[in-house]
Amino acid sequence: MLRNFKLVVAYDGADFHGWQVQPGLRTVQGLLSDAIARVTGDRVLPQGSGRTDAGVHALGQVVSVAISSPIPARGFLIALNDHLPNSIRVMKATEVSPDFHARKSASAKTYRYRIFRGDICPPFTARYVYHHPYPLDEEAMAIAAAKVIGEHDFTSFAAVDPERGREDVEVSNVRTLFCSNWQRHDSELIYTVRGSGFLQHMVRNLVGTFLLVGKGTIKPSQISDILAAEERSANPGATAPASGLCLVSVEY
């Protein structure tokens, strides 16, 4: 009889080619699958709440996996971490109902993007931030961020090919954002966004566009026009570097 487990996983994305298994490449999903096989003897593909790109980090990626082994939850947790590199840690392992699915059961996710604003970025911080010491109108960026709250079609903020690497099978690019704000914490400017779901590159494209607002290239009022266009080509914002992005938590 199969037992369904919910794993909460943290990882340093700088060491991997993203979440999803790719032939010949080191990925979080691939290494987790290998560790599960060593511990339980079951060769399975663990399902994440969504796919993070190469270089993107996670504090609370949620994973579901069904195994036949009778191993207790705590033993499963300890054994998995013994077989994983230090840059991947299973923080929690809980046996759940058979109908739980990390992606399909999710109701909301929170991402955080960190920009280091100081002149010199400390070496132990550099892997987890985007270093931008140049002038930015942070107040204008905060105004722009608020304009994407609510239900919108986010095609203008999706990857050029929205079907590639999607975290779900829906055709619609409509998502609901419950929170979108910038806050200053000492030398860091931090963007926090919580939503019902996210398209590929969506958060990094939002950040890239808000950076243009901060530089004065576009105005906060233009965010609404970019959203309404529903075309990536209508958005001049570049995709922000992956290093600053982290999946903080997933809600069910």
Structural topology:
Blueprint: E1 3-11, H1 28-40, E2 47-48, E3 57-67, H2 73-82, E4 88-96, E5 108-116, E6 130-131, H3 138-146, E7 150-153, E8 174-185, E9 188-195, H4 202-215, H5 222-229, E10 245-251
Parallel strand pairs: 3-10, 5-6
Antiparallel strand pairs: 1-3, 1-4, 2-3, 5-9, 5-10, 7-8, 8-9
Description:
This protein has 252 residues and is of the alpha+beta class. It folds into 2 domains: 3-96, 2-Layer Sandwich (Alpha-Beta Plaits); 108-251, Alpha-Beta Plaits. 21% of the residues lie in helices and 29% in strands. The protein has helices at 28-40, 73-82, 138-146, 202-215, 222-229; strands at residues 3-11, 47-48, 57-67, 88-96, 108-116, 130-131, 150-153, 174-185, 188-195, 245-251. A hairpin with a 2-residue loop joins strand 8 and strand 9. Helix 3 (138-146) packs across helix 4 (202-215). It starts with a strand and ends with a strand. Mean pLDDT is 95; it is low at 162-166.
